[in-house]
Amino acid sequence: MTSAPAAAARGRARPRALAPRWAAVVVALAALAGTAVGGFTSVIAGLLSHRLQVRAQWFAHENNRRQTLYREFIEEASRCYIDALQNDKADIPGLVGLYAKLGRMRVLSSDVVVKSADEIAKRILDAYLEPDKSFVELRDMAKNGTIDLLYQFSMACREEFERFRAQQL
What we know:
Layout: H1 4-86, H2 92-108, H3 111-129, H4 135-144, H5 151-168
């Protein structure tokens, strides 16, 4: 038989012997948790970075697409308008191209841009019904600014690009 003090001494010795093992386990678990948190943070940062990069690429593509469409519309509208001012016979292929671009704008553009483009198309059609303009009359129109039917459209496009740029940030 063992004495009571000896049994008590053995009972206290046992937890002291396990304490270094538990400390090693806690340190190992803390290291694993730190590694997991670091890895998770790295993965999340990578995903967010990729998402921002994809979004920036989409905005750039969309911006280029609209710029191309607006440039083509301006060129087509200019040709049709000058033709309408000088001729009473409509340039049907030119008008078809103009209305095709207007249709694409209805899909891509803001209401303000579409409304402005629609007004341009109507003014071009009306110009075919007016008497033909001589070069002197065209020069006078250029001097007083009445020949520039694209001003409102250009301003609407500029505002749309500025709003689009603000969304990108």
